[in-house]
Design a protein that fits this description.
By secondary structure, this protein is mostly helical. It contains 2 helices and no strands.
């Protein structure tokens, strides 16, 4: 019975999964932002290059 109670109270696995999901969400947001910023930066450098 004590072993069963310990299994119910153990939240380490759930916490690790939650942290993994948060890290994945942050990674997706960062990739999206960098991709958008990268294309804008390319356009800026092309405009500067053309004006030179």
């Amino acid at each position: 019975m004590m072993h069963f109670r310990k299994m119910i109270k153990n939240n380490k696995g759930a916490t690790a999964i939650e942290y993994g999901l948060i890290a994945a969400l942050i990674a997706v947001a960062a990739i999206t932002a960098m991709s958008s910023m990268g294309s804008k930066l390319t356009n800026t450098f092309n405009n500067v290059g053309n004006k030179l």
